[in-house]
Amino acid sequence: QQEALQQYKDRDAVTVDGTRVSLRANIGLLSDVAIAQQHGALGVGLYRTELPYMSRASFPDRQTQYEIYRRVVEGFPGQPVTVRTLDIGGDKMLPYFDSPKELNPFLGWRSVRVSLDHREMFQTQIEAVLMAATHGNVRLMFPMVTTIDEIAACKEIVANARQSLSDQGWDIPHVPVGVMIEVPGAVALADHFAKEVDFFALGTNDLIQYLLAADRANPAVSRYYDSLHPAVLSSIAQMVAAAKRCGRELCICGEMASDPACFAILVGLGLREFSVSSPSIFGLKALLSRLDIDQLTMMSQQALTQASGNHVRQLVDAMIGDET
Ligand code: PEP
Ligand code: MG
């Protein structure tokens, strides 16, 4: 089947009526670069930088990070590569990093909160990302932001990193800065955040667990973790509207975007930028090529009014069939 889908590699992701979307890749390790290329990904919508940190015995220094990021950026000439700063804590611990034992790690000291409490480490990473930006089209993204103060603090560190590099003779190009929207409280502040950032990325893996109070990593509650729960769709719709109102790009990089049924709903909700797991790209293009945007829009509007994720699933299955 994957062979039959190979024809989609160099094709655009477009509906019957000509509505185009961008399919970029979620990557973590250097080996993911080749896989993304083989599937015709239009750059990287989410580079999880903690993966190279996790596979080491100690913190990589600036030069080491720069060399890794540079190789990723050079893998996608002319295409955007969105580099997310360290997102540790919760499900991703570093063996050499002293983390407190917490009762609720996902509600605790994780992600950008850790970075902001370790400014030297944070600035080092940002410097390495800015250095890599001299080799391509880099964008910088902060995870799990919940307050405007965090954005200000992150931007101050970016400014310090730029200054320090410039003092060392580096000529760093403009690098767009964005935040991930993955906490329900951040959705409500999108208009304020938009004044401070160039783009948004929807992190639905976390957004779903926080909206539905269902740990993303706990099999005992996996049936409560429902990507098509109408409350999830409603939050996404709210973000689409906010991004449009504020003229900011909105990409979705949670795993749900790689699932055909969810993808159909997301396109219908108005999303046009996707970052997905590379092996899903051909199938999503094939699916899109037989759908019509007006039908998708109508279906997604109906989905928003449903009583449960199962009702939404029935709606979307009726439209896309069982082929996927
Ligand atoms: C997300 O939360 O949706 C996301 C893309 O980030 P991660 O899965 O790395 O937490
Ligand atoms: Mg996340």
TrEMBL record:
Coiled coil (UniProt feature): none
Predominant location category: cytoplasm
Gene Ontology MF terms: kinase activity; metal ion binding; phosphoenolpyruvate-protein phosphotransferase activity
Record key words, sorted: Cytoplasm, Kinase, Magnesium, Metal-binding, Phosphotransferase system, Pyruvate, Sugar transport, Transferase, Transport
Any single GO BP term: phosphoenolpyruvate-dependent sugar phosphotransferase system
Subcellular localization, as worded in the UniProt entry: Cytoplasm
GO cellular component: cytoplasm
Family to which the UniProt record says this protein belongs: Belongs to the PEP-utilizing enzyme family.
Protein name: phosphoenolpyruvate--protein phosphotransferase
Organism: Rubripirellula tenax
